[in-house]
Amino acid sequence: MYSAKIKTVLLATAAIFLAGSLMVFPKESLEASIRGMTMWWDIVFPSLLPFFIVSELLIGFGVVTFIGAILEPLMRPLFRVPGVGGFVWAMGLASGNPAGAKLTARLRQEGKVSQIEAERLVSFTNSSNPLFIFGAIAVGFFHNPALGIVLALAHYLGNICVGLLFRFHGRQEEASEKTNKSNKLSVKEALRLLHKERLKDGRPIGQLLGDAVQSSVKTLLMIGGFIILFSVLNQLLILIGITSILAVFISIILTFFKLPSDLSIPFISGIFEITLGAKKTSESTETALLDQIIITSFFLAFSGFSIQAQVASILAETDIRFKPFFVARIIHGFFAAFIALLLWEPLYVNQQSSQEDWGVIPVFLSEKTAAFHPIWELIVQYGSIFTLVMLVMYILLRTNQALK
């Protein structure tokens, strides 16, 4: 009871402090809010919405059940999650944060995974998508597409390590639970389950598409709110001086890991919001490139409090606990930073030396990294138009639903 009262006082004090800061720094808060809004409007919304809609359609048509039956022999032994986890993993990797949490929550609501399985699944299915890593960070901020390979491999291999580690999560609790373990199924049986799931859903295609659009846009509106909030919060912490105070403690930790203390401010920014952190880290010209990549790999895996708040909001609609996800992000951060250090010499230093000696760029670097740049430019150029069209469509669908 006493701890609950302290928590109430602390939360109320923080809210009052935030409101007072907004009044003291109205201009800076507005500029930070516009930056967050621009990023959501131009990039986040158009890049995530198609994946969210397609995911909803695949679930409604029973394709997820089909994939789950096929991937059960792979996902169960490796990660101790049902085969449907393979679908969440693939969609989370392709579309980026927080798609893995959204799909995991949806599967939990439909009873396709248990609580423990959902907590394992959400721990390793949330990641930044390749387009963001190659297009925004490697090319956009560091102006070096070759870095995308190091960052991406460190990020995704680190997530796999987290999944393998979290297969042991909740073993004691799971012993008292009945889990949905199925034997290896044939393709014919998987197709039968697909048809059964489609009939069980029962919605016409038009209604299914409309529901998919509404659900996806609603989630993205929530995500946009968090992006704007943390953009403002991060700026206020800098203006008030709290970031400078935290930087003193962070610099001690960085020194322990033999990293330059100059990266403490970019590191704190990345802990709150990865895009801003990556931008500030790339601008730290006084530090070695390897140190910048290690720091970027850490907060890219940590996901930032902005994305974690989005995930917490999504998981709050279910019985999936947020604590395992938070612990997984810290572990993922250390895994990704360590793997980036291991991959630095073979995948970057040696390849750069080879390029200088022979005057050529290895195929796996030139083709893969260059392919993401035009896609990223396309999203930046036409993303705002796409967002506007889809929001108008969402308003029309909601209006039509209200009139009925």
TrEMBL record:
The chain crosses the membrane at residues 48-71, 121-142, 226-257, 293-314, 326-344, 379-397. It comes from Alkalihalophilus lindianensis. It comes from the Bacteria. This is Sporulation integral membrane protein YlbJ. The keyword RNA-binding does not apply. The lineage of its organism: Bacteria, Bacillati, Bacillota, Bacilli, Bacillales. Pfam families: Gate. Signal peptide: none annotated. Residues 44-140, 220-315 form the Nucleoside transporter/FeoB GTPase Gate domain. NCBIfam families: spore_ylbJ (TIGR02871). Keywords: Membrane, Transmembrane, Transmembrane helix.
